[in-house]
Amino acid sequence: MVRRALLPPLNPARAFEATGRLLSISKAADELCVTPAAVSRQVRALESYLGTPLFVRVHGGLELTPAGARYLSDLIPLFETLREATLAVTNSSPGRNTLRIRSPATFAVRWLIPRLASFHQLHKDIDVQLMTSFAPLDFEREDIDAGIQLGDGRWPGMRTLQLVRNELVPVASPAVRLTHKKQLATQTLLHSMARPDDWMLWLRAAGLRNVSPTHGMKYETSLLAYQAAIEGHGVAIAQKALIEKELADQTLVAPLGQTLDRGDYTYYFAWPTGKPQSSALRAFRDWLATLVAT
């Protein structure tokens, strides 16, 4: 009996990672310097290898299937680690700077990565190495220059820059009929295990005591919970800043309208106070400050 290889075909996996991250065949083709047809073939080859669809077409665009979203959330940190290892070997060109940043996966995919191209356009001499994890930042133990973290922004030994407002709002597919908050008692609630208290906080603020804040489907990351909501599997509690695209194209709707602003408890860019700041770090921080000021 012939066993299948333990690793997936790497070129198709690379094509899928770029397409899933950018949610665009043409943008992935530009990034990989190949034709859109080649990217499509590679993605289909990976779907055939895995035996499951990774994308669906909606409103003329692409959306990840639940399997695709789960696979992408696993592949992104692996490819970033591969890029980092390659840069560590090859990054000997004079005049280039390397900036190592860590972020929660959902924030990286939903907010940071779509904006990174503008930073690269401004600072072509700076290589950004992006890693993902929702573990607390630890600049003493980690080989990173800065990171993004969810919290109140008051962490010893760190300076911070607030990035987005943390507004919690229930969202669902337009196919889910939801017109009043009391109907949540009959809906499947979708939870992120990375943020287990979000439903409890929103339900408490909405005055709903007959809805369990813990029942429903639970997913490792918000990225997966949002995708499950897009697929019509229930109602997710979302951070509004991370689903702007889906609300704009109406693959997700916020039928109840009521939001809960967590105030200072949100995402921050953080860097250590006890280490010299490189020119790359200063450039990245200033770029972020410009983004959040607009």
**Main sheet overview:** 5 strands, mixed
Q: Provide the low-confidence segments as ranges.
A: none
Name the average pLDDT.
88
Q: Helix/strand/pairing class, anyone?
A: alpha/beta
What coarse outline follows from CA principal-axis ratios? globular
> What is the CATH architecture descriptor of the largest domain?
3-Layer(aba) Sandwich
Secondary-structure element series: HHHEEHEHEEEEEHEHEHEEH
CATH homologous group name of the largest domain? Periplasmic binding protein-like II
Total count of helical runs of at least 4 residues = 9
- Helix % is 40-55%
Number of folding domains? 3
Strand elements, count: 12
Roughly how many Å is the radius of gyration? 20 Å
CATH class of the largest domain: Alpha Beta
Q: Per CATH, what is the topology of the largest domain? A: D-Maltodextrin-Binding Protein, domain 2
- Please indicate the percent range of residues in DSSP E strands (runs of 2 or more): 15-25%
- Strand sequence of the main sheet, in spatial order? 4-3-5-12-6
Instruction: Compute the separation of the termini in Å.
Output: 60 Å
Brief summary:
Keywords: DNA-binding, Transcription, Transcription regulation. The protein is α/β, with parallel strands linked by helices and 294 residues long.
Give a written overview of the molecule.
There is one protein chain. The chain is an alpha/beta fold. The chain folds into three domains: about 60 residues, Winged helix-like DNA-binding domain superfamily/Winged helix DNA-binding domain (Arc Repressor Mutant, subunit A); about 100 residues, 3-Layer(aba) Sandwich (D-Maltodextrin-Binding Protein, domain 2), CATH 3.40.190; about 100 residues, D-Maltodextrin-Binding Protein, domain 2, CATH 3.40.190. The protein has nine helices and twelve strands. Strands 4-3-5-12-6 form a five-stranded mixed beta sheet. A five-stranded mixed beta sheet has the order 9-8-10-7-11, sandwiched between helices. Strands 1-2 form a two-stranded antiparallel sheet. Helix 1 packs across helix 2 and helix 1 crosses helix 4. The radius of gyration is 20 Å and the shape is globular. The model has no long low-confidence stretch (mean pLDDT about 90).
